[in-house]
Amino acid sequence: MLSRRSLLLASGAAAMAPAALPFAGSPAAAQTPPGVLVFAKQIDDIISLDPHEAFEYTASELAGNVYQKLVTTPNSNPSQIEGELAEKWEVSGDSKTFTFTLKDGPKFASGKPVTAEDVAFSLTRAVVMNKSPAFIINQFGFNKDNVGERIRATGPRTLVLQTAESTAPSFLLYCLSAAVGSVVEKAAVMAKAQGDDWGNGWLKQNSAGSGSYAVRQWRASESVVLEANPHSNVAPQIKRIIMRHIADPSAQLLGLTKGDYDIARNLGADQIRQLEGDSRYTVQSARKASVMYLSLNQKNANLAKPEVRQAIKLALDYEGIQKAIVPTTYAVHQSFLPAGLPGALTEHPFKRNVAEAKALLAKAGLAEGFELGFDYSSAAPFSDIAQAVQANLAEIGIRLRMLPGEQRAVITKTRARTHDIAMVRWGSDYFDPHSNAEAFSINTDNSDDARNRTLAWRASWLIPELSARTVAALKETDAAKRTALYEALQRDHQQQSPFVIMLQDIEISVSRAGVKGFDMGPMNDRHSYTNITKA
Amino acid sequence: MTEDNTHRAAAAPPGASAPAASAPAASPVVPSGAAATARSRPSAARLRLQALSATVASVPITLFGLALVTFLIGRVVPIDPVLAIVGDRAPMEVVERTRLELGLDQPLYIQFWKYLGQIVSGDLGRSVMTSNPVTQDIARFFPATLELATVAIIVAVLVGVPLGVWAATRQGSWIDQGVRLFCLAGHSLPVFVLGLLSLLLFYATLEIAPGPGRQGVYFEGMIDERTGILTLDTLLAGDIPAFRDALWHLAQPAGVLAFFSLAYIARMTRAFMLAELKSEYVTTARAKGLSRGRIVWGHAFRNIAVPLVTVLAMTYAGLLEGAVLTETIFAWPGLGQYLTVSLLNADMNAVLGATLVVGLIYVALNLLADLLYRLLDPRVR
After folding, report:
1. What are the pLDDT digits (tens) for B64-76?
2. Cross-chain Cβ contact B333/A220 below 8 Å
3. Both A296 and A399 in a single domain?
4. Is residue A8 part of a domain?
5. Is A33's Cβ below 8 Å from some Cβ in B?
6. Which residue range(s) make up the domain with A402?
7. Which Gene Ontology cellular component terms are annotated (chain A) (predicted)?
8. How many domains does chain B have?
9. How far is A487 from chain B (nearest CA, A)?
10. Is the ipTM of this complex over 0.95?
11. pLDDT tens-digit readout, A3-13
């Protein structure tokens, strides 16, 4: 017979059995090992580690640490272009031929030196594979048919690029500083090539770069392990970097406080507030090249009136929204070039002014107000921001019908131009003013079957004059004049456009005390691990 | 996918839940059924064969229905599937080319027909999110879920069943009330609260359990993947410290899931047992002087085994489907996470593929429960 006691014992033993064995003698959760740095981060956005294919945040960041580009920009002074693999470069008189001379010294993780042949191969590879980020390089007129002539290694350390049209040097150089400009080791990649895949199948999971680190292992939605490149010209102190996929921010915080992670990358605003002022942690932030804005569809007769657009811009309480809802993770920003990018404009001409906004509506003959549909992403904090926008606009008589949806559903709607007002985000594709200028300020064909469907097109905003000015700014070869053109363009854009640019993303990372030197930039491929040290 | 709602009938695909529901109904306690079986033995064998072949025949129909519904939902979602693949920035040529490549310009029924053809040839398409074939992704994410679910169900059964029996034999006592309260807690506390509390207690405060993840940093990147079941892989590699580490990491998420499942299992066991203990044969056995242990374990338990098997099979199926929140909190790269992330990215190939796999699991476990039911009930043999 089974007594009460034996039953208790049996069930107790069963419950403990799987736990009892490992509890005996395993090392208790402690500090991460010396020489090893552990990031806690959401990394399920990684699709591929191939720098000529990857366009996602985490993969771009990894590419920035595993590969080197011809040129780069230091985070301390983002508008200054520095050679990374290139020692110097020359531009021909017609601004069409660019000759780069490589540094003597950079070596791949295999120990082989980086040659002009590797650089030419890498850029050619990006052009011919023509994956997502390829347009950044292809916009200079390269395609699979002409790339052989236009990108050539003319010596072991000399590379010549020929663009189709005369090109602003800063534009080309900024584009080459993107992750898609990464240089891979030709021999290593081609040894693994299958068919005509240019080694893409292999490079998705592995690396062949000259950066500070090399990829040891990537497990999707689990972890990435990097190891220091022993031949790198800038030897990092941390020998091994482990990036763990910790989806839940609370779990990231817990692990950080327990010393299991050195740097947590996706903490929420509340958690960050909790750690600020605690000497055991360092909260570090960087402006991200991503803006949040309202798109006012010009197909809507009311929104097409300039006074209405202006009234909406004056009705919003930018400061209040930022302070109350997203104090640590967003900053007020009102122009299309985010702070941190060359040519950015950080003025805030719009402040809440309900009286003036109402007067403008009355002038437009809409004193009684009107109703509009409002599409926004239902996730936090967007839903809170959307409610604040609704309340602000209600005060001037504009009644918003709230239409929350999944982020991509909102984007799908703006692409079909069936929204009235939509709240969306836009991240810059590459580190040059043109990335955003093209999106926000070019639309010369407003027909439904237009080829170039920019954000301006999605707002049905036909702007031949501003488009011409945007193109002129792109072509300006003098860097200082180019910046001035973008600033002027943004000032006019701010006043006229159907875009109410509200906020800019701030990326936050929190490190344990003693962990120093994680360098964060405005773009993900500018986050550098090279100088990280651990006490 | 549902979150850890292993046992609600709604969690099962429509076709799959039918046998589950019918099994307890065909509970062997009905004496007339037994007599009928005994009377016509040869035709019973034929009937059994028929029933079995009917169940097997329902598999493709169930899967077809599942594929159809998931496919339609995927097409009704207000997200452009091309957007999911080429991204928001792709030029018009690429968008149009992709639309043609995907066959999205064709009528829905032709698209579905093509997809069915693909499935039959074992091709679930390519995931947008990971750029791998969906079959490869599932082969990578499913073992993690299998490992977690299997350990959880073993613990849940070993604890839940005796607990339920114990409570039933002492109906109304403080023990019974205690077990019921315990089960209520396990059943009504959301699993993410349980997970976070568990992390806070065992990991953060007591420091006896490791944090989220499948292995410690020391072992990261050290073990070759063979089966994808880490505890097994570490054993195959002969790395005992790594095995202990993997097991140690497994204990907490499996414990949380087990608590959640055992609450249900114990409740069901208690209910089945209570009904059984009220039957006449139990009174007879008692009158004949049989010990309580023999009555409970030798007689009553054998009779509740059949409906219990169905409960366990469905609980296990629910766990295998992937416990999204548990997997998220414990950073466990399993099927639930894969399915959720795919869904949020409108990665329809991955969603369809993973849904079909989940459906297959349900159907397979139902079949298994059916077979076990025949094995456990001597009157049907």
Report:
1. 888 898 888 878 8
2. yes
3. yes
4. no
5. yes
6. 287-506
7. ATP-binding cassette (ABC) transporter complex; outer membrane-bounded periplasmic space
8. 1
9. 24
10. no
11. 444 443 444 44
